[in-house]
Structure formats: C-alpha cells, structure tokens
C-alpha cells in the first residue's frame, strides 16, 4: 500500500521549493513531474506529497492537514526555521496528552502542525 497526500497549489514550483526545504530533515526529493502534478517523495514508507496545480487559491480551513515530527525537542527553533522558509505561524504552542505542537501555514496558506511527541510515546 502507498499513501499519497495531495496538496492543491497555485504555483507548484514555488510550493515545491518550500516543501523540499521544509521536509529536508526527512530527506524528501522531487519525483514525478508532469503538469499539473509534481510529486515529492521521501524514503519508504514515507507518504508522497503530490502538488497539484489548481486555478483557485485556498479557501477556508483545511479539512485534512499534515502533522510533522522533525525529531527535535526544540519546537520553537523548528517553527523559526519554517518561518525563514516562508511559513506563517498560525498558533502559539499548544499541548494535549503529552504532545506539544504549533500550527503553521505554507506560503499559500495550507495549515500543518509541527509537533513534539509525548516522551512516553517517544521511548516506545
């Protein structure tokens, strides 16, 4: 089985640059590139991020979003790194059930969470 997450984009090249830089710690690279699609693939079993060019900009809240664990305890530093790449911080740090996270958005406004897992789950 393969999981592909599709992200609608106005500018797939600009979004590819952002997402490749954002996902760099996870070792993503360009894959299939055939308009209106461009895929970003990581090492197996990582899901593929498929960028799909669409004519309209994002409207409303995402019904599905990515939750990214960059394997760091320094959540603020990771959010700052993403902001330097063009992300926008949407929320302050939140926590629940031992998880800590911040909601950010990519340059086209697609929300995603950067999180640090619970220490209990991290040791399993």
Topology (elements, then pairings):
Layout: E1 4-9, H1 12-22, E2 29-34, E3 37-41, E4 48-53, E5 66-68, H2 75-85, E6 88-89, E7 94-96, E8 99-105, E9 111-116, H3 119-122
Parallel strand pairs: 1-4, 5-9
Antiparallel strand pairs: 2-3, 3-4, 6-8, 7-8, 8-9
InterPro entries: Glyas_Bleomycin-R_OHBP_Dase, Glyoxalase_6, VOC_core
Organism: Streptomyces endophyticus
Protein name: VOC family protein
Strand content is 35-45%
Low-confidence stretches: none
* Topology, number of strands: 9
The end-to-end distance, rounded to whole angstroms, is 24 Å
Structural class: alpha+beta
- Please give the largest β-sheet: 5 strands, mixed
Number of H- or I-type helical stretches = 3
> Mean pLDDT, rounded to whole units?
93
The sequence of SSEs as H and E is EHEEEEHEEEEH
* Rg estimate, integer Å: 15 Å
**Relative helix content:** 10-25%
Q: Can you tell me the overall shape?
A: globular
Pfam family, one: Glyoxalase_6
Domain VOC: 1-117
Protein name: VOC family protein
InterPro entries: Glyas_Bleomycin-R_OHBP_Dase, Glyoxalase_6, VOC_core
């Amino acid at each position: 089985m393969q999981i592909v997450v599709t992200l609608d984009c106005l500018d797939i090249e600009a979004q590819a640059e952002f997402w490749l830089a954002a996902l760099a710690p996870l070792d993503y690279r360009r894959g299939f590139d055939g308009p209106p699609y461009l895929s970003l693939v990581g090492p197996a079993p990582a899901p593929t991020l498929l960028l799909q060019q669409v004519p309209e900009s994002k409207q409303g809240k995402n019904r599905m979003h990515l939750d990214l664990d960059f394997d760091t305890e320094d959540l603020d530093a990771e959010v700052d790194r993403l902001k330097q790449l063009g992300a926008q911080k949407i929320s302050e740090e939140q926590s629940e059930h031992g998880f800590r996270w911040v909601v950010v958005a990519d340059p086209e406004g697609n929300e995603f969470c950067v999180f640090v897992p619970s220490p209990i789950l991290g040791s399993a």
